[in-house]
Design goal:
It is a single chain. The chain has one domain. Strands 1-2 form a two-stranded antiparallel sheet. The chain is globular, with a radius of gyration of 14 Å. A hairpin with a 5-residue loop joins strand 1 and strand 2. The protein is α+β, with helices and mostly antiparallel strands.
């Protein structure tokens, strides 16, 4: 992801006082990225299972250690 897009999305989360959000983006054939939505309760379990990533554990650790 381009650094400027990453920075913008992190700032957006900060504006809404969110530690987590699921953000939907779309990229066209020319590489232009479009913002579709920000969901503060977005589902991620399918990504965790498909990629074998410990997302739930990382989120729980974050909450406990905050």
């Amino acid at each position: 992801m381009p650094k400027d897009i990453e920075t913008t999305l992190l700032r957006l989360n900060k504006c809404y006082n969110l530690n987590y959000s699921a953000i939907d983006l779309m990229e066209d054939k020319n590489g232009k990225i479009y913002f579709l939505e920000l969901n503060p309760n977005g589902q991620y379990l399918w990504v965790e299972n498909k990629l074998d990533l410990p997302i739930s554990k990382a989120m729980a650790d974050f909450i406990v250690n905050k």
